[in-house]
Design a protein that fits this description.
Layout: H1 4-8, H2 14-30, H3 37-57, H4 60-76, H5 80-96, H6 100-112, H7 118-138, H8 141-157, H9 161-177, H10 184-196, H11 200-217, H12 222-237, H13 241-258, H14 261-277, H15 281-294, H16 300-316, H17 320-334, H18 341-357, H19 361-374, H20 381-397, H21 401-419, H22 424-459, H23 463-549, H24 555-580, E1 586-588, H25 589-604, E2 611-616, E3 620-622, H26 623-644, E4 652-659, E5 665-671, H27 688-699, E6 703-707, E7 713-718, H28 724-732
Parallel strand pairs: 2-4
Antiparallel strand pairs: 1-3, 4-5, 5-7, 6-7
Helix pairs in contact: 2-3, 2-4, 3-4, 4-5, 5-6, 6-7, 7-8, 8-9, 9-10, 10-11, 10-12, 11-12, 12-13, 12-14, 13-14, 14-15, 14-16, 15-16, 16-17, 16-18, 17-18, 18-19, 19-20, 20-21, 21-22, 22-23, 23-24, 24-25, 24-26, 25-26, 26-27
Length: about 725
């Protein structure tokens, strides 16, 4: 067998050189600019020449390289399924001859075939994780770090930010170990994830590390523009807008040098937003006009942003006639983006701004509601605070003071809960101002009445009574002011006392959480170590049995030992899966069955005309279910490969795992071989394998069924206690 080093230490023979020349030519035509079909035909010609020469000279790792190239070409042609088939075929060749790095590269290419939609991202993660151990075995640490980095990026897209951080930190550790120079990509990704979870101090730290590395490498690519953009976002979030503008301008400068239209538009739009936030509306508008001139809006996103920027400028500068023109344009676009919530939210924000700036507060409520519906799926409490404040502004302007207070209270409650800022003082102040304003109005009315009484008293020559009334009113006002001040100060002291208690409780909770996290990590490590040791002990027993068989001459005894080795290998594979994954409780049945089938095919050296068809339901089982099912599969497939296809052509083994309407699962193992004899009785059978399968079925509370028509079919019906539906039903009963 060729070792992994054999594929790397290729001799400079003329044949190998020729194969590499063919592959380089294929790569040239594949990556050639332009969409020309003849280039792909030329690439396929050279790839097939490389495969043919590899076959002729029995250079099997090179054959795998040629098949991978053919798969890449099919993907470029848009034939993704055929591309996947070729890549899996290449992997089979690589595995036969232990070409570890090449196996990892092939799995990465398979992952790249999937889109960045929710389903595709999960597939990408699975295949990149599958590639990872092969790069580790090959000793390719740079590839290992790249895979960690990409998996972290995929988890970020999948909105699993903390898992993304875990993989990016692993990538960082590997790259530091090998002193990898291009670390700025990992630093930038870490910064982006920390922005997403709101840890801006760490985000800024990693972004500056990325920029410093890019400076050392003199990197002026579009990635450098992205780094300045991210730095600008961080400063914007922490309200240091002038610094945000500086980094946004740096990013625009690089984008202009690279003539990257997309980057130029992004950086200009960011500058428009920042200048508007600091009140420099003319500066923002000049950038928006230049952007529209250089890149006329074409897409829905570009049209919405363009009209929003113009509407904001004319609204803020009081030119409401021009603003109305752009508000109408936004409303026309609203009907075209009914399924794009982010664009609906932008349109709603523009309409709210225009209507409130122009004093049309009642009409703005409709668009506040539209904005709230558009961002509801974000579940962002800070956005909810913005919505409540918009309602507060509208209600305050229309005289609905009770509604205004209610919305202000909601905003304050959410802000206190999520951002831990003190808004209750502002609330008290607002309520005092409201009550003071109301009392001032009442006081003015009272003074007018008193003045009228005073005139009447003067007419009636009652000056003394008039002075007494004025004195009483003055003293009452002073007492009221003292009372209001005392109440406000008392609320302030109570708030401070409450904050101190909450801070102490939070520190206690944080300490408890840290202790629990440490215990949990230790428990997970111990469980992994147990599974690892069980797997190693099983491997030792297998090796001992293998050694024992070398000293045996009795064929039956050797056969029994080989069967026992296979059974222990099945159990070993399950424990290996458990300690290699983060989930220590359950086994991915799909992956386990595929791995078991591949192991048995290699062990029995299955003929090429024996086909395996697998249709496995995505299912996770605990170890008490996974081990018996694995042993049943081992017995059934082993018996099939040994006895079912004596000189039979078109042999086929079908393995199906599906669910039923009764929340049960059925495992089918069927072959089209000669089957059992017509007189076979399962209850009278003395076969250890048959007895073992029956006993294992009983062990998991399942039903064991044989069907001896057109070959042999074995069925095992069982349930899965880890299934939430099964657990719920068991609790009800």
């Amino acid at each position: 067998m060729i070792t992994s080093s054999a594929s790397k230490q290729k001799t400079a023979s003329p044949v190998r050189t020729k194969i590499q020349e063919y592959l380089q030519s294929a790569k040239f035509y594949l990556e050639k600019r332009g969409e020309v079909l003849s280039d792909l035909d030329s690439a396929m010609f050279f790839a097939q020449r490389a495969e043919g020469l590899s076959n002729q000279m029995h250079l099997f790792c090179e054959k795998g390289d040629a098949i991978v190239m053919e798969g890449r070409i099919f993907r470029e042609m848009g034939k993704r399924e055929l591309a996947q088939t070729y890549l899996f075929r290449a992997i089979e060749w690589y595995k036969k001859y232990n070409c570890m790095k090449e196996i990892g590269d092939a799995y990465v290419l398979i992952g790249e075939n999937y889109q960045n939609d929710p389903v595709g991202i999960v597939k990408k993660i699975d295949y990149y994780k599958t590639a990872l151990p092969y790069f580790i075995k090959a000793g390719d640490q740079e590839a290992e770090g790249e895979v960690y980095k990409h998996i972290g990026d995929f988890y970020y897209v999948h909105e699993d930010n903390y898992t993304a951080l875990d993989y990016l930190q692993k990538a960082l550790a590997v790259f530091k170990k090998i002193k990898f120079k291009k670390m700025h990509f990992v630093y930038d990704l870490l910064a982006v994830v920390y922005i997403q979870i709101g840890q801006y101090d760490l985000a800024l730290r990693y972004e500056f590390l990325a920029i410093n590395v890019a400076d050392d490498l003199k990197d002026t690519s579009s990635e450098r523009t992205a780094m300045y953009y991210h730095a600008s976002l961080i400063y914007r979030e922490i309200n240091q807008l002038n610094k945000a503008i500086v980094y946004s301008q740096k990013g625009l400068e690089i984008a202009m040098k690279n003539k990257n239209k997309a980057d130029i538009q992004i950086m200009r739009n960011n500058l428009v937003n920042l200048f508007n936030r600091i009140g420099k509306y003319d500066k923002a508008f000049s950038i928006a006009k230049k952007n529209a001139k250089d890149f006329p809006p074409a897409t829905s996103l570009e049209k919405v942003l363009h009209n929003y920027q113009y509407l904001l400028y004319y609204s803020k500068t009081g030119r409401f006639a021009e603003a109305k023109h752009y508000s109408n344009k936004l409303l026309d676009l609203l009907d075209q983006v009914t399924h794009e919530h982010d664009l609906q939210a932008t349109i709603a924000q523009g309409m709210i701004l225009y209507l409130q700036e122009s004093g049309q507060f009642k009409l703005s409520n409709r668009y506040i509601k539209l904005f709230a519906n558009s961002v509801a799926q974000l579940k962002n409490p800070l956005v909810v605070v913005d919505i409540e404040r918009l309602y507060f502004k509208s209600d305050s302007a229309t005289g609905n003071y009770i509604g205004a207070i209610r919305h202000f209270q909601r905003a304050g409650y959410i802000t206190d809960s999520v951002l831990k800022v003190n808004s209750s003082i502002q609330m008290s102040k607002m309520m005092v101002e409201f009550e003071t304003e109301k009392k001032d109005k009442d006081l003015k009315i009272s003074i007018k009445d008193n003045q009228l009484l005073s005139r009447r008293a003067q007419i009636q020559e009652n000056a003394l009574k008039n002075e007494k009334v004025i004195r009483n009113v003055t003293l009452g006002g002073i007492m009221m002011m003292v009372l209001v001040f005392a109440l406000g100060y008392n609320r302030f002291l109570l708030k401070q006392q409450s904050e101190r208690k909450l801070k102490a409780q939070q520190e206690f909770i944080n300490n408890q959480n840290s202790s629990l996290q440490g215990l949990l990590g230790e428990k997970e490590w111990l469980l992994k170590e147990i599974h690892h040791r069980v797997k190693n002990n099983l491997q030792i027993v297998i090796s001992l049995l293998n050694t024992q068989s070398l000293y045996l001459d009795n064929i039956d005894a050797i056969e029994i030992i080989n069967k026992s080795q296979n059974r222990m290998q099945v159990i070993s594979l399950i424990h290996q899966k458990l300690y290699q994954t983060d989930n220590l409780a359950t086994i991915d049945v799909n992956a386990h069955i595929n791995e078991l089938v591949n192991y048995l095919k290699d062990y029995f050296d299955v003929r090429d005309d024996v086909k395996f068809e697998l249709d496995i339901l995505p299912l996770k089982l605990d170890i008490s279910r996974a081990v018996p099912l694995g042993l049943i599969l081992n017995e059934a497939i082993s018996n099939c490969l040994k006895y079912a296809f004596k000189d039979q052509k078109n042999a086929k083994v079908t393995i199906i795992l599906k669910s039923t309407a009764l929340d049960e699962y059925i495992l089918h193992i069927k072959d089209n071989g000669k089957g059992l004899s017509d007189h076979f009785e399962i209850n009278e059978s003395t076969s250890l394998g048959m007895s073992l399968m029956q006993g294992l079925s009983d062990q998991i509370g399942g039903e064991f069924i044989l069907n001896n028509e057109k070959g042999l079919e074995i069925m095992v019906v069982f349930n899965n206690p880890t299934n939430p539906l099964t657990l719920a039903k068991s609790k009800l009963t």
